[in-house]
Amino acid sequence: MTLWTSEEAAAATGGRVTAPWAATGVSIDTRSIRPGDLFVALQAARDGHDFVAQALAAGAAAALVSRIPDGVAPDAPLLVVPDVLHGLEDLGRAGRARMQGRVIAITGSVGKTSTKEMARAALAGQGVIHAAEASYNNHWGVPLTLARMPADTDFAVIEIGMSNPGEIAPLSRMARPHVAMITTIAAAHLEAFGAIEGIAREKGSIFQGLVAPGHAIIPEDLPVTQILRDCADAAGAFVLGFGDHGMARPLRISARDGGLSGQARITGETVSFALGTTGRHFAMNAVGVLAALGAAGADVAQAGGRLSDWRPPNGRGALEDLGGIRLIDDAFNANPTSLSAGLAMLAAQDGPRRVAILGDMLELGRDEVAMHRDMARDPAMDRIDLVHCAGPLMRHLHDALPEGRRGIWAATAAELAASAPDLIGAGDVVLVKGSKSSRISTVVDALRARAAQDKG
User: Fold this and answer.
1) What letter does residue 375 receive in the DSSP assignment?
2) Where is the signal peptide (predicted)?
3) Any known ligand binding at 287?
4) Does 429 belong to an annotated binding site?
5) Bridge partners (DSSP) listed for residue 252
6) Residue 24 half-sphere exposure, CB side, CA atoms within 13 Å?
7) What b-and-e string marks burial along 130-144, b requiring 16 or more CB atoms within 10 Å of the CB?
8) Is 301 exposed, middle or buried (0-12, 13-18, 19+ CB in 10 A)?
């Protein structure tokens, strides 16, 4: 089905069409491009113009460019604009403008991508659903998601992230959500904000893009909940809190067959749900998702029944059997709040030993040493048998642990990965967690490789 014609795209961007074309998708990467895609030649680590000829040879319908690249004929199917990123933004705005369904935007310091995928799964069967791929939540990810959105979409789930002040509000205004949900506020990217209150105000700016009368879904019981409520009030939004004391709250959560089942009260309605993984933080985000979907007009009971189809994305808390050990792969990112949630998830598992393998938590600002050291006093640590650490910051946690709980410390994740056979034993339940740049995921790779070798 055609997503964009050259005439529609030219009208949206004000660009010049060199030859008529029709696109069925939008791509920024020649490695994953599909025939019929519009290739967007963004400037990133490499200039996308260098790959236009390759994209067209791979079957791209056209390319969005700011100049005719070398090796590309002047009459090739192109849409020429002054600036490619601005052109993509214009295409995203046009994609949002022609869509008549409901838009849900999700942000938060922890759990954006897993919660977005939770919402996508819960909405299955309720019309045409469109959601961001992977963690496409930044200055190019949001417009790309909107530009890819079919005109007949009934529900769209847009993920919005930030690294620095002032990034969320413009993306929210572009997405124009009817409902905006904040998962939680934590010490992530703290060095750019100075204090967690600044993070809360930045996250709360997502409400500035709400289509009136919009709904703000906020976590209750946080030290900064009132800041989020103030941001929502300033935007004229209806506020719905979720959490143990929220209008949307869990009534019962219990473990079952490697997952969770529960009931939630969603603005007066009792909704049953099940999750195919453990972790109370996932259950709480499920309650928030159900509240957001209800505010967007979805069938909440049906959404609750679909939540069992959801699994955490790779690196974000998925529970995996590796031939004799159980792995919680949470290696995509980390801050004190998400690490505490991961440790609680590990502590709740049954097994002869519970082992944590931890990499540095980054971008925490001036208190980063204390934040690492203080994790040794996390309540879940009492039920964890052994902690291996990698990185200079995690050295402070390692040194603060009781000697009997102290495992291997290595300067880098690569060194720890090389010791993979010495980190675990048969029957262990293992959590691997750290910031992405700590490269603690190399330990996950090593554990999987060892399991595959043992199986072979």
Assistant:
1) G
2) none
3) no
4) no
5) 263
6) 7
7) bbbeebbbbbbbbbb
8) middle
Which residue has 């959590």 as its token pair? 431
Which DSSP helix (H) or strand (E) runs through 94? helix 84-98
Identify the residue whose tokens are 């590309």: 72
**Structural domains of the chain ordered from first start:** 4-84 (3.40.1390.10), 99-309 (3.40.1190.10), 318-455 (3.90.190.20)
Q: State yes or no: 109 annotated in a binding site.
A: yes
Q: Say if residue 277 carries a ligand binding annotation.
A: no
pLDDT tens digits along 42-64:
998 899 999 999 999 999 999 99
Name residue 410's beta-bridge partners: 390
Residue range 53-106, pLDDT digits in tens:
999 999 999 999 999 998 899 899 999 999 999 999 999 999 999 999 999 999
Of 298, 107, 281, 129, the residue nearest 207 (C-alpha):
107
Structure tokens at 40: 């967007």
Eight-state DSSP code of residue 363: S
Per-residue model confidence as pLDDT tens digits over 237-276: 999 999 999 999 999 999 887 789 999 999 899 999 999 9
Confidence of residue 456 (pLDDT cuts 50, 70, 90): low
The strand pair at 326-330 and 318-321 is best described as antiparallel
In whole angstroms, what is the distance from residue 406 CA to residue 81 CA? 58
| For residue 392, cis peptide bond before it (omega within 30 degrees of 0) | no
For the segment 16-35, the average pLDDT, to the nearest whole number, is 97
Is position 198 annotated in a ligand binding site?
no
Grouping H, G, I as helix, E, B as strand and the rest as coil, residue 409 is strand
CA geometry: angle 204, 207, 209, nearest 5 deg: 135
Residues 424 and 349 sit within 8 Å (Cβ to Cβ) = no
**Residue 112 labelled as part of a binding site:** yes
Altogether, the residues listed in the chain come to a count of 456
Please list, in sequence order, all residues whose beta carbon lies within 8 angstroms of the beta carbon of residue 342, skipping any fewer than 6 positions away: 279, 317, 328, 330, 334, 356, 431, 433
